[in-house]
Amino acid sequence: MAPARPPIGPASVLSAPRRLLARVRDVMAGAAPAQERLDDIVKIIAADMVAEVCSVYVRRGGDVLELFATQGLEPSAVHKTRLQFGEGIIGDVAQKARAFALADAQQHPNFVYRPETGEEIYHSMMGVPVLRAGRVAGVIAVQNRTQRHYTEEEIETLQTVAMVLAELIAGGELIDHTEILAEELAAARPVRIEGIGLNGGLGVGHAVLHITDLPVADLVADDPDAERCRLHQAFSEMHGSLDELLADDALAEGGEHRDVLETYRLIAEDAGWLTRIEDAIETGLTAEAAVQRVQNDIRARMAKVTDSYLRERVHDLDDLARRLMLHLMGGTGMALAKDLPEHAILIARSMGPAELLDYDHDRLAALVLEEGSPASHVAIIARALNLPVVGRARDIIQQVDAGDLVVVDADNNQVFVRPGDDVLTAFEEGVRHAEDQRERYEELIDQSTETKDGVRIELWINAGLMIDMKHLTEWNADGIGLFRTEIAFMARSKLLGVDEQTRLYKRIMDQADGKPVVFRTLDIGGDKVLPHWGGADGQNPAMGWRAIRVSLDRPALMRQQLRALIRGAGGRELDVMFPMVAEVAEFEAARELLDVELARERANGRTLPAAVRAGVMLEVPSLAFQLPTLLERVDFLSVGSNDLGQFLFAQDRGDARLADRYDMLSPIVLKFLSGIVAECDVRSVPLSLCGEMASRPLEAMALLGLGFRRISLSPSAMGPVKSMIRELDVMALAKQLPDLLVGPEHSVRDRLREIARSQRIHI
Ligand code: PEP
Ligand code: MG
Prior knowledge:
The protein is an alpha/beta fold. The chain has 29 helices and 22 strands. It has an eight-stranded mixed sheet with strand order 7-14-13-9-10-11-12-8. Strands 21-20-19-18-17-16-15-22 form an eight-stranded parallel sheet. The model is unreliable at 1-13 and 248-260 (pLDDT under 50).
C-alpha cells in the first residue's frame, strides 16, 4: 500500500525555493541570448537569496573556470577572472564536486584573492558545483559581507538552481563560436593514456561512458501535484516488486533471509526518505530530479561517515533510489545497458562485477577503468568474458567523449583515444599477431599437459558463468577448479531460490560431462557486492563480514545452496569448497551444515550424490598454522592467491594504488606456499591453486617448481600457461628454487625470468 499523501497547500502559494526555480526557469525559456539570460539569472538569485554577490563560473578547456556572470563583483572581471580546478574555494568546489558554505571564507586556507573582482569586502561564501552527466560544468556561488551562516535549506536551494543552470551551460551558446571550434579541435586531438593491463588483448570501437546515475531528461515540473502522484505510483510499484521477492517460495523456508528483505522494505517505507523527496518536488523539480537531488545530498553528507550501519543504509538507499528511478522512467533506464553499439569500448571510473554483467557482452570490445586492479572482481569477470581491460587509466573520462574512436591495447598497458592512422595501422598488425599466437596455442590443445621432463600437470579452469563452461571441452581441461557461485547471484536482481539454483548447478554439471566441478559456496561481501544484498560495509569490507562468515551466521542461505548442490548433482559426485576459512572450527561448522542437508535429503528419499568431497580455500594466512589438523579433515585444499596476497601483505586487492606495490613472486609468498605443498604431500591431500597467480606463465612456472601439480586458471590463460609447461624442465627448476626462498629481495621475478630464459621458455 502506498504511504498516505501529505496535505497539499493552495496552488497559488509557492514555497520560496519553488518561486526561485520558477523565475529561473522563465528566464531560461526566454528568447534572449544565453549570456543575457545568465546575467538575469545571477541577479534573480542574488535578490532571492538576499546575497550581495551571485556569480557563475563556467568550465573551459584545460580545467579552467571562467567568471561568466556576476551580480555584485566588478563587472569588468567577467570573462577575465579565471581559476584552475583546485585553485581557491571556487576551484575546490569544482575539483571535489562538492558544495561548500563558509561563514568566513577569507580565513580558509584555500582562499585566493583576485583584486580585479573587488571581493575583499565579502566574508561569507557558499558555492555549489554545476554538474551534468557526472561532470563539473561550472560553479555557482553567492557571497555576503557579513559572516553569514548559510542554512542547509539554502545550500539545497542553490543545488536545485545549479541543476537547471547545467542545461543552460550544456546548450553550448555561452562559449563563443570561434572558441567552440578551437575547443572542438583541441578535443579532437589524439590522446594516449597509460594504465595497467588487467586482461590482455586488443580492442577497437566507439566509446560508451558508463554512468552510474541515470540521466534525468526533465528537471523542472509545473505541477507538483502530478509529480507527487507519479512518485507515489512508482513507490507502490517498487513495493510490489519487493513483495514479490518476499513471496519467493525458497525464501519462505529461510528465516534469516526474509529478515534481510524485510529490513530492506522497511527502509523503503521510511517516511523520512519519502518526505524529503516530496520536499524536493515542492521546490519545483520533477519526481526523477527530486529522487536524484535527495540521493546526491545523502551521498555528499554521508561521504565521511565511518559507522558501518549508517553506511550500509546509504548503500541500500542508493539501490532503492535507482529502483525508484527505474519505475519512474517506466523501465527505460535498463535499456541503457542493453542498447550498445557493436564493438563498444566501455569507459568507467570504477565498476562492480554485476554492473559489467548488465551490459550485452557480445557487443563489448574492451573495458577501460580509471581505477581497478588485477584481483578485483570486475577484472576477473572481464577475463571470463575474454574482454581486454586497461585499468588505472588516469582521467580518461575527462578526455573521451561518447562515440569517440578508441583503441585499447591491454597487452601494452595503453589506450588511444581518437587515434591517428599510424596507430590504427599498428593496431591492425597487432591483431594479426594475436591471431597467429592464438593459432599456435590452439595447436597445443591436443597435446599432453606434460613438462619437458615428463611430469604430468593438471590444468583446471576457473568459471563463474555458464559461458565459461565451453572452455572446459575447448581446452580439454581436467575440470573446473573453482566455480564462483556468487557470480550468478550478482547477475540477478534478486536472490536465487533453491529450485533455480538446483537447475543452474545441474546444467553446469551436465555441461561438465563427468569432469569434476569444484563449487565454491557463496563468497559474498568484500568486493563481491550483490545488488539485492546491501553491499560492502564495515571499515574493511574485505576483512569483514563476508564469505563463510556470512554463510555461518545466516545458515539458511548456505543450507539452501548446499541443498541445491546436492539436488543438482543427483547421483553424480559432488565437490564443495568453502571460501575464506580462517580456522578449522569454521570448516567443521560448514561441514556439519553439509551433513545436515545430506541427512535431510536422504530422509526425504532423494537421490544422494555418489560421493561428496568437501574442501577449503586457503586464503587467510591463519589457517596455515592449523594445517596438520585441517588436512586430517578435508578432502582437498585450494590456495586462493588473490585473497592470500591481500592478507599476507595487508594490501587491499582492490586498491589501484597498491596494485604493484608487492609481488606474489616474493620470497615471502614462495616460502609460504612451499610450506603448504610440503604438508599436503606428507598427508597426500590434493592441492591446487586457483587464484590469478596461476594464470600468469612466470608465476605458474614458479608454482610448478614449488611442487604444485594442479592449478586452476582463467580460460584465457590456458594457451600461454600450457605452452610454458611443455617447455619447462620442472625438476631442474625445483633444484634452483630453494635458493630463491631465503633472500631479502622484494621480488625474485627477474631471477625466475633468467631461469626461464636459460631453459628457453617463451614467456
Ligand atoms: C582468491 O582469493 O584467490 C580466489 C580465487 O577467490 P576470489 O578471487 O573469488 O576471492
Ligand atoms: Mg578469495
